[in-house]
Design goal:
42% strand; 2 helices; alpha+beta; 7 strands
Length: 148
């Protein structure tokens, strides 16, 4: 039997150490422990990075989209491996492979993070991740992380 659920921002902040302006997950819509997570980020003009990227045509930096995917993946890893974790453990990003950027992400967009665990071995987790806007892939990558 799989476990499926959602997380609000308070629960997300209990699992992730990130805070404003670097917390890039607003809500977890659904997850299946050990398998996948769907989360979202509402992109607004109030984001501090839009002041310089780019003032004339605001575009969310691709590296922050990947960071948002990594944060969603870290949430999934924490949820999936909760029994093995203590409160001092963190998930560190150790690799990005096959990153591709397919469309711009601009103020008003809602980024949907879709992350799937492809492998867990010991303290390492490998993830397949996509960020979508209106069902269209904005970015995708294979991510690797470790617990420390």
């Amino acid at each position: 039997m799989t476990e499926a659920s959602a997380l609000e921002i308070q629960e997300i902040m209990q699992l992730l150490p990130h805070r404003y302006p670097f917390l890039l997950v607003d809500r977890v819509l659904d997850y299946t422990k050990g398998e996948s997570i769907k989360a979202l980020k509402n992109v607004t003009i109030n984001e501090p990075f839009f002041q310089g990227h780019f003032p004339v045509e605001p575009v969310m930096p691709g590296v922050l989209i990947i960071e948002g995917l990594a944060q969603a993946g870290a949430l999934l890893a924490f949820i999936s491996e909760k029994e093995k974790m203590d409160e001092n453990k963190l998930v560190y990003f150790t690799g990005i492979d096959k990153a591709k950027f397919r469309r711009k992400v601009v103020p008003g967009d809602q980024l949907m993070y879709d992350v799937v665990i492809t492998k867990i071995k010991g303290l390492f987790v490998k993830l397949s991740a996509k960020a979508l806007v209106d069902g269209e892939v904005a970015a995708q990558a294979e991510l690797t992380a470790t617990f420390a």
